[in-house]
Amino acid sequence: GAVVSQHPSWVICKSGTSVKIECRSLDFQATTMFWYRQFPKQSLMLMATSNEGSKATYEQGVEKDKFLINHASLTLSTLTVTSAHPEDSSFYICSARTSGFETQYFGPGTRLLVL
Amino acid sequence: AQSVTQPDIHITVSEGASLELRCNYSYGATPYLFWYVQSPGQGLQLLLKYFSGDTLVQGIKGFEAEFKRSQSSFNLRKPSVHWSDAAEYFCVLYQGAQKLVFGQGTRLTINP
């Protein structure tokens, strides 16, 4: 149980285009979903927290207009990287938790390469 | 401020040998602590967690961790490693307000 999926697993796009990444909780209802960014050989950095039906809360330094997060249902959250630039190339990971539990379950990640 | 330190960036052990990955935390109250493993192409997988109670926590894949409040540590151990244990390991602290604080990670290499 507690499986989280992400789609796509990797994406290459041109600079200036937008990319959408989906995060789904497959066998549980996720009241809260999280988006992280991981640079090569580094740890995970929290970008934003989203609760179903509410606006996402962004961490300091994360541009909310660039990284649009939508958590429209209890099983789906999306991250859209708008007007992507090469410096946005990274590994994006989502996680999800259900109400009352502190454990987060992580997706496999999406590798984004912006040319 | 809450923080997690994993002193060892990279550890190499021989297959069949014992393993201990170190983790130290800084937190004012009783911490919630986790160990996650990240394998290439796979998501972070929860190995074990400590919320309260017994300070020796058993996890999946034969791993265990011991919470030592006096040393602010939560070290991960395994008596005999397998080649499939090669991965990146993260010690994680629940910071509160739904947020996790990650250690820097320890990359484990297994020699045949």
Describe this structure in words.
The complex is a heterodimer of chains A (115) and B (112). With 115 residues, chain A is mainly beta. Chain A is 0% helix and 52% strand. Chain A has no helices and 11 strands. Chain A has strands spanning 4-7, 10-13, 19-25, 32-38, 44-51, 57-58, 67-73, 76-81, 90-97, 105-106, 110-114. In chain A, the strands form 2 sheets. In chain A, strands 2, 4, 5, 6, 9, 10 and 11 form a 7-stranded mixed β-sheet that branches. A 4-stranded antiparallel β-sheet of chain A has the order 1-3-8-7, with no helix packed on it. In chain A, a hairpin with a 2-residue loop joins strand 7 (67-73) and strand 8. Chain A is globular. Chain A starts with a strand and ends with a strand. The model of chain A has no long low-confidence stretch (mean pLDDT 92). Chain B is mainly β and 112 residues long. Chain B contains no helices and 12 strands. In chain B, the strands form 3 sheets. In chain B, strands 2, 5, 6, 10, 11 and 12 form a 6-stranded mixed β-sheet that branches. A 4-stranded antiparallel β-sheet of chain B has the order 3-9-8-7, with no helix packed on it. The termini of chain B are far apart. The chains are: A mainly beta (115), B mainly beta (112). At the A-B interface, strand 5, strand 9 and strand 10 of A face strand 5, strand 6 and strand 11 of B.
